[in-house]
Design goal:
The protein has about 200 residues and is α+β, with helices and mostly antiparallel strands. It has a domain of about 110 residues: ATP synthase, E subunit, C-terminal (hypothetical protein PF0899 fold, 2-Layer Sandwich), CATH 3.30.2320. It has a four-stranded mixed β-sheet with strand order 2-1-3-4. Helix 2 crosses helix 3 and helix 2 packs antiparallel against helix 5. The longest helix is centred in the middle third of the chain and has 82 residues.
């Protein structure tokens, strides 16, 4: 076994014989720096992409909500316009029907007689005082065919058109104008259409 001093001397000699560590070359340093740069760039790009994607999704959701609001605002005026068109067409239908039906009442007093009779029956004209208001020309045409009771009084009303009538009793008033009847019929049709 060698002496401890010899071991120390041998270790010192071996250390002197070992070459000193070689510092990296400029190319090796550049390669290390380039690798670190690429790694950092790739990591930063991935993180930036994830963050940008998240912000992009939030922006898309915000814009989608904004577009939904805009489309909702567009649909309201269209609904209102649709209602206005329906009202205008209804008014036109009432006027056209009124013109056609009004002529029928002028040419056939029996139609007006049936209307007057049903209106008088509705208010109990045989048992109470009733005033039947008609256009003056309708009174002349209706008088010969209308079975009058002693409680019924015919009154000329120039504010009414041919074919119109109004019935006034104690606490009852019936608007039998052609326009009111047509509007009532049209309203019934529109309500049935809305429920269907």
């Amino acid at each position: 076994m060698p002496a401890p001093l010899d071991v120390v001397l041998q270790a010192a000699a071996a250390a002197q014989e070992a070459p000193p560590p070689v510092p990296p070359t400029l190319e090796e340093i550049q390669a290390i720096q380039d690798a670190a740069y690429r790694e950092g760039l790739e990591r930063g790009l991935a993180e930036g992409h994830a963050e940008g994607f998240s912000h992009g999704q939030a922006e898309v959701r915000r814009l989608a909500a904004q577009m939904e609001g805009i489309l909702d605002n567009f649909s309201r005026p269209l609904d209102r316009l649709e209602n206005e068109v329906v009202a205008a067409l209804s008014e036109l239908a009432v006027r056209i029907a009124g013109a056609l039906v009004g002529r029928a009442y002028q040419t056939d007093p029996v139609l007006l007689q049936e209307l007057a009779t049903s209106a008088l029956d509705a208010v109990g004209g045989a048992q109470r005082e009733v005033e039947l208001r008609l256009h003056p020309d309708d009174i002349a045409a209706l008088t010969p065919v209308l079975a009058m009771t002693p409680h019924t009084r015919l009154t000329a009303d120039t504010s009414l058109s041919r074919g119109d009538l109004r019935v006034h009793a104690e606490s009852v008033r019936i608007d039998g104008t052609l326009e009111a009847r047509l509007r009532g019929a049209l309203e019934t049709v529109l309500n049935r259409g809305a429920r269907a």
